Amino acid sequence: MATVTFDKATRQYPGNPTPSVDKLDLDIADGEFLVLVGPSGCGKSTSLRMLAGLEEVNGGRILIGDRDVTNLSPKDRDVAMVFQNYALYPHMSVAENMGFALKIAGVDKTEIDRRVKDAAKVLDLTQYLERKPKALSGGQRQRVAMGRAIVRSPQVFLMDEPLSNLDAKLRVQTRTQIAALQRRLGVTTVYVTHDQTEAMTMGDRIAVLKDGLLQQVATPREMYDAPVNVFVAGFIGSPAMNLVTVPVTQDGIKFGTHALQIDRAQLSGLGSSAIVGVRPEDVELTTNPDGLALTVEAVEEMGADAYVYAVPQDKSITLDGSGEGALAKPFIARTDGRKPPMKGSTIYVYPKADHLHVFNPADGLRVN
Amino acid sequence: MALEITSAATDPAMFDLPWSIPLEDWPAEHLAALPRGISRHVVRFVRHGGTVIAVKEIKADLARREYAMLRALGRLDLPCVKPLGVVTGRETLDGMPLDACLVTTHLQFSLPYRALYSQVLRPDTDARLVDALAALLVKLHLAGFWWGDVSLSNTLFRRDAGAFAAYLVDAETGELHAELSDGQREHDLEIARVNIAGELMDLQAGGYLEEGTDPVGTSSQIVARYRSLWSELTGVERFETGDRWRIDERIRRLNALGFDVDELAMSTDVGGTTIQIQPKVVDAGHHSRRLLRLTGLDVEENQARRLLNDLDSYRAALDRLGDSEEIVAHDWLTRVYEPTVAAVPREFAGKLEAAEIFHEVLEHRWYMSERAGYDIPIEWAVADYVHWVLPNKPDERSILGVDTVAMPVLAWDDDEAEPRQTR
Ligand SMILES: Nc1ncnc2c1ncn2[C@@H]1O[C@H](COP(=O)(O)OP(=O)(O)O)[C@@H](O)[C@H]1O
Ligand SMILES: Nc1ncnc2c1ncn2[C@@H]1O[C@H](COP(=O)(O)OP(=O)(O)O)[C@@H](O)[C@H]1O
Ligand SMILES: [Mg+2]
Ligand SMILES: [Mg+2]
Predict the structure, then answer these.
(1) Which one is the CATH code of B23-108: 3.30.420.40, 3.40.50.2000, 3.20.20.140, 3.30.200.20?
(2) Ligand 1: does its nearest atom lie under 6 Å from the Cβ of A45?
(3) Cβ atoms of B86 and B103 closer than 8 Å
(4) What's the predicted TM-score (pTM) here?
(5) For B378-417, what is each residue's pLDDT tens digit?
(6) What DSSP assignment string belongs to B229-247?
(7) Relative to the alpha carbon of B56, which ligand is closest?
(8) Whose CA is nearest to atom 5 of ligand 1?
(9) What ipTM does the predicted assembly reach?
(10) Residue of B nearest to A55 (CA)
(11) What is the spatial distance between Cα B59 and Cα A137, in angstroms, rounded to a whole number?
């Protein structure tokens, strides 16, 4: 087992004007499950291939444990890139399905047997080792697919969007399984996904990338409670955080008629406006004229809760994404499902004081 | 939601297919054949206006992506299945949403590798399949395509004058860049090696592989074959200024491998004593393009090589080396090729492609001539071939196995003893 360190690691593809991974600094602890997340093209796969030794590093270093592996070939790194072929070979026994990658790697037969037996024990598959996959239940088959990765017992597991082509139900089940298994084995794991829900539910910590630049590394909770910039704020969480650009005056930030309490010092860095972030579940919703006036466009009832979709009555107020040309994006508020407001009615909203996110429109950075 | 078909070719009849039914429940009357295996997605072959189409049920965003990718690959003239369209907005009659479908044209005379292995095989079949796949991977990589799921099951094979030509069938995981990095190519090779070894081990466990075949050894061959082809096609060569014949020699070698050199970078060192050359743009299809230009026949690369050889011997035998190539080619086409192909009775037309039959007749003539001790005319050879050989061959025009090797992993409701076999 080992730590992993990206030390200003940079990769620029020939012919590209900018690096696809730009001075990545990341320390991953021994046994940690780290998720690299970000939109398509942000540099996730490139980072993973750099760690695997498959992609040339143009600047900086990569370490596994104390070892500088920057110039080592993939096979000298003791990492396993798991491309989850979530499918089993029908003519091969469970044991063979689990051990075949070792056979390819030239591991000798007694060692394969030993590792397959160990993995089977962890996965509760011992009594099925001689069976064919057809005779297994869905859950057992899934564990066999995982056994393939486990038997390689590397220092670091690398997984690149392993769930992307599974159907929704299997995806949810599998991510729970992978996360639980990783914790049981305690092997350092770097997991790549574009899906923030997957990242939030699986990772010990999450690293958000955008355009090759690391935005934030934090636990899911920290990431959710204190996103460092507007991008992370909008990317993490579902439904997404409302990001509202509102005026700043002498007395503070004006969220409609509601003045937001914020530190003088923090206020001074802002210009004439601020981007206020408020998650749907952190919205105070009233019918008193206190806050930002919205017209309710739709209500989605979900039992205990309801989601209210509403638009600002003051058309000079912009919601992130609602600018010219973009599809108008509504303000979303979660409220009590038993007495949601009526469609077409006017409501007033403001952020709960202890769940306030304020960003500077100039650089997108968090100010509070 | 309204049914929506995105397609380059407008084909209103496509609306008549039963899109409101889950693909796995489509009535048999629409199906060209029942699938034999299980693939990750549900795939069905469907009769449609005199042709056969392949329909794959897959999430809408993935379907659109794969459709666009296959179109892009087609525009780059790479061997892959032809995309017909994407069907979205499907729902059952009682309003339940269904996954989208990607529709491709069934590739005629293509053989999934598992179908091949259920026939009696020539001894070196594994090696020839791996060769074809390595060549396909090189072509894709030269064009900047990273596959991400290289495997025998994601490849279709067509007979090509004793060898195979490989086509890409599953582009779901692919990415297209201006140029691939070495790391991306290595990544694909590693994926290929693991997948192919697994697929061959599975055939071995099922008793389909010849005694003594080594799946791991065969799968590493793809890496070796790929590397040697790649370095031949892209490698830098240095030589003394006096050895300029080596430029022609390099181009001839590339032609022999089936590639044309569209751009060659040449430079001398500072002192001007050595020359350095490197092919920059190479284009597969050296022989097939030449044959197409001369005869209008559109065939695979090795078949073209074979046909061109026959054309050359025709020209030499008739002592017409002074005549223009085009005129001789036209005569050869109407006097040799077409009559030979036409001698095949209609009922056997589904067995092999015309060019492959011609190749086999040439082979057959060679054996007959050797036995007889004199040259057998092609008319005799084709008659003998049609009588004795062809009837015993399987029909290969539409081998319709959904032949993904794998047993899919299923979602489970509890740890039920009997899995659902549906997906
Ligand atoms: N071979 C290449 N040549 C040029 N650019 C590339 C190449 N491969 C990837 N890129 C670019 O690098 C960036 C990061 O790619 P990648 O790491 O695959 O992103 P992700 O995995 O996050 O989707 C993208 O902008 C992509 O287009
Ligand atoms: N256009 C086509 N022509 C011939 N065979 C096809 C075609 N499309 C799919 N197939 C067959 O269906 C199988 C599964 O298709 P594929 O696209 O690989 O689906 P999956 O995503 O489920 O792996 C392929 O291995 C191939 O045998
Ligand atoms: Mg990626
Ligand atoms: Mg496939």
Answers:
(1) 3.30.200.20
(2) yes
(3) yes
(4) 0.89
(5) 999 999 999 999 999 888 887 665 544 456 666 666 544 4
(6) HHHHHH--EEEETT-THHH
(7) 2
(8) A13
(9) 0.85
(10) B183
(11) 24
